[in-house]
Amino acid sequence: MMTPDNRNAAIAALVIVLAFGFGAFYLPTIMLAIGSYSPVIAGIFAVLFVAAFFLVFWLRGRQQRRRGR
Question: Which terminal residue of the chain, N or C, has fewer Cβ atoms less than 10 Å from its own Cβ?
Answer without folding.
Answer: N
